[in-house]
C-alpha cells in the first residue's frame, strides 16, 4: 500500500533561519516561502534528488504545529508523508486493521493540492503519518 | 552538498510489533531484523520505492537510542540521513559554518558499512542529521 516517501516534514520556530541553514550550511536547494493560511503553516521545500523535506513554521492562531513547537521549542521532525494510489481504499483498510484516522476520516486537500489523511501517532509507534493520494 | 535522503530512522520500543504494523497494516516490505551490537540497535528496513525507513530498537545497555525512548516511550522519528559524496569535505564545511559534529569528528562505519557522521540537533532546528558517504 505505501508508495514513495513524498516528504518528511520538520517544524521549526523560525523559517527564515532554518531555510538559510539548509541553503547555506547544508548546501541544499530551498524554495521560496509559501504561506498556506488554510493549513496554518508557512512552508519551504528542501529539494533533494529522491524526495523533499518540508520546513514548516506556524501561521495564524490555530496552527496545527503550535502544540508540537510548544513541546519542542527548537523544532523537530513532525511527520512523514507516504504516497498511496487510492486514499479511500487505504483509509478503509487501515480502519479495518484498527488504526485511527484523524479528523472526520474524509480526506482534505493538502499543501500539494492532493487529498491527504493523517493517522494517529499512537497507532504507529509515535510517528505521525500522512497519506497523500498521487 | 546534501544528496539523496538515504533513510529516515524511527526509534520504537518493540521492533517485532512495529515491523508487523508496517508489513500488515501499512502494506510495506519489511526486512528481517538485524542485530547491530556495535551500534547498540536492532534494525529492520521498510523498503520504499525512493528511500527507506529504518525501525530501530535498543540493543544492549549502552544503546544510543535509549535516552530518546525514555523521553518518547511510544517511539518517534529519531533522525534523517542524507547522502554526501565526500564526508570529510562535508565535515570541514559544516565546522567552518559553526555547526557541531558529534563525537570526535572522525567518521564511524555506519549500519550500511559506509562512513557516517552525526550533526548536533541544536544546530539544525531540533533535527538529528546523519551524513553518510556513498
Verbal overview:
The structure is a homodimer of 134-residue chains. Chain A has 134 residues and is an alpha+beta fold. Chain A has a single domain (5-133), classed as 2,3-Dihydroxybiphenyl 1,2-Dioxygenase, domain 1, CATH 3.10.180.10. Chain A has three helices and nine strands; from the N terminus they run βαββββαβαβββ. Chain A has helices spanning 15-25, 66-71, 87-96; strands at 5-11, 29-30, 34-36, 41-47, 52-58, 76-84, 108-109, 115-119, 129-133. Chains A and B meet through β1, α1 and β6 of A and β1, α1 and β6 of B. Chains A, B: Keywords: Cobalt, Isomerase, Lyase, Metal-binding. Chains A, B: GO terms for molecular function: lyase activity; metal ion binding; methylmalonyl-CoA epimerase activity. Chains A, B: InterPro entries: Glyas_Bleomycin-R_OHBP_Dase, MeMalonyl-CoA_epimerase, MMCE/EMCE_epimerase, VOC_core.
What does this entry show, briefly?
Chains A, B: Belongs to the methylmalonyl-CoA epimerase family. The structure is a homodimer of 134-residue chains. With 134 residues, chain A is an alpha+beta fold.
- Pick out the low-confidence regions of chain A: none
> Between the first and last Cα atoms of chain A, what is the distance in angstroms?
12 Å
CATH topology of chain A: 2,3-Dihydroxybiphenyl 1,2-Dioxygenase, domain 1
| Assembly category | homodimer
Query: Biggest β-sheet of chain A, characterized?
Result: 9 strands, mixed
Our count of domains of chain A comes out at 1
Structural class of chain A: alpha+beta
Q: Please tell me how large the radius of gyration of chain A is.
A: 15 Å
CATH class of chain A: Alpha Beta
The CATH architecture of chain A comes to Roll
Strand content of chain A: 35-45%
Q: Work out the helix count of chain A.
A: 3
- Categorize the overall geometry of chain A: globular
- Please name the two chains that share the biggest interface, counting residues whose Cβ lies under 8 Å from a Cβ on the partner chain: A-B, 44 and 44 residues
Helix content of chain A: 10-25%
Spell the H/E element sequence of chain A.
EHEEEEHEHEEE
Number-wise, the strands of chain A total 9
CATH superfamily of chain A: 2,3-Dihydroxybiphenyl 1,2-Dioxygenase, domain 1
The overall pLDDT of chain A, averaged over residues, is 96
InterPro entries (chains A, B): Glyas_Bleomycin-R_OHBP_Dase, MeMalonyl-CoA_epimerase, MMCE/EMCE_epimerase, VOC_core
Pfam family, one (chains A, B): Glyoxalase_4
Family (chains A, B): Belongs to the methylmalonyl-CoA epimerase family.
Keywords (chains A, B): Cobalt, Isomerase, Lyase, Metal-binding
